């Protein structure tokens, strides 16, 4: 097992809790079923939800923020590369760019709240694709969502007054890839 703590993209070692170990065992069962990505993301969400908000899920170190950007703590990367678990810690106002992902993903809010704006690409008159905002979501503690490419373009940020922490389970080895982001999108003026 690999554990890590850092800003987005780099990883260093950290310890895990008994609750996290129990969650990982369940996630391993769900992922090993070999179901399509969207169904796997759904099952992982059901497995993740009961652990969200539990005070014994993360260590103090895994809840530490960074004053300059959201902070990524790699909690686990499965030895065969089939999934990774990451805790993201967001101070008020911190967020991501508009992006999509290298694999299926399930997220759950452990503490606080997160805002998410979802997008899709539509064909434009000139033949190029145009990014269009489709949905705004407020995710509160205990809520989960899952998605799989294509259709996984979004931006996430902490619009609340306090620190937010979310857990992200990816169907890829984030310790090897360094990020779950496949592509970053530039927003048009009207998004």
Structural overview:
α1 (18-32) runs antiparallel to α2. This protein has a five-stranded antiparallel β-sheet. The chain has a three-stranded antiparallel β-sheet with strand order 6-5-8, with no helix packed on it. β1 and β2 (84-90) form a beta hairpin. It has three helices and ten strands. The chain starts with 17 loop residues before the first helix and ends in a 6-residue tail after the last strand. It has one domain (18-185): Jelly Rolls (Sandwich), CATH 2.60.120. The protein is of the alpha+beta class. It comes from Streptomyces machairae. GO terms for molecular function: dioxygenase activity.
Give the strand order, joined by hyphens, for the main sheet.
Answer: 1-2-9-4-7
Mean pLDDT equals 84
Structural class: alpha+beta
The number of distinct helices, counting runs of at least 4 residues, comes to 3
Overall geometric form: globular
CATH fourth-tier homologous superfamily: Jelly Rolls
Family: Belongs to the cysteine dioxygenase family.
Keywords: Dioxygenase, Iron, Metal-binding, Oxidoreductase
GO molecular function: dioxygenase activity
Protein name: Cysteine dioxygenase family protein
Outline:
This protein has 191 residues and is an alpha+beta fold. 16% of the residues lie in helices and 36% in strands.
